[in-house]
Automatic annotation (TrEMBL):
It comes from the Eukaryota. This is RTA1 domain-containing protein. One of its GO terms (cellular component) is membrane. It is found in: Membrane. It comes from [Emmonsia] crescens.
Amino acid sequence: MSSEPTTEELYHYSPNRGAAIFFTVVYAISAASHELQHRTSKPQKFTIPLTLGAIFSAIGFLQRSLLASDKGDVKSLYTVSTMFILGAGPTYAGADYFICGRLFSFVPSAAPMSPIRVVRTFIAFDILAEICVWVGAGLLAGADGGAAARYNIGLNLIRVAMITQAVLFASFVAVLAFFHIRVDVLRAKWSVTSDGGTERRFMVVVYCLYVSSILIITRSAYHIAETFVPEGHSFRATEPPFLICEALIMFLNTIMFNVFHPGHILPIDSRVYLGLDGQERANEAIEGAFYDSRPLLQKILDPLDIRGLFVREKKKQHDPQGELEMENHSARGLVRH
């Protein structure tokens, strides 16, 4: 007698074949669109995770559709499906972190911290969450009836991954809010100038990051709840919660960035940034302004430089062209006198 688990035993319900096929197709279309948009943005490397996230989702739902059609090895298909569907979340999160870093480098005078520091710190924890998801999914799928310990380890790893992601995004939203507040202060100054500052709609990207954060936090909350409710609970024994809180929510996230692609809104040249007057400039030295010169111990204890959010050094507000403008202004004043 075979001990091979059935699809219903693994999912606690029978997956809907039509829904799985539908999401396979729409995620594949979104992935293809992201790849095309990536190439037409010359290309912008920080948009690559958007393509990868949609590809992961498409692969995961393809395996799920095969499971629903009773085609292939049940355990293998379930493992691959779970790994890619759950792994897509941290990938989308990584896209948000890279986009945020690009925003900070574009408006350095409003950035609460170095874009390099934001990307490295958040991505490090994001990779940890991704590893927990993949290992946890493998342990869950490989746990047979008597392997309770293996199953519990896998389940706890999934919990750690989802809780980590939720906490990360709560912190991410706080950092983004600081940036937003500082941008509003700068834009108030730009509005009184004759030109009104840049015409680039970079705030659209900020609002998209807010929406994406809400979607991903909602998705993480669903998976956290899913791992804590009893197996026989209707929350786990029916498919609609999964289709809404995972499939639909993550599709809204990826399609939003198809419509408002950051690679087409932010400058192609990474050296281009906004000066204190809201005008775009290009300066090769701008990247050097983001070097973290703090002592090693301070970097370890405060990787995001939370202290810098409240006690900001003047050099972090430095505009590479500011000194030249001040000199020109002073010169004009001397001529008038």
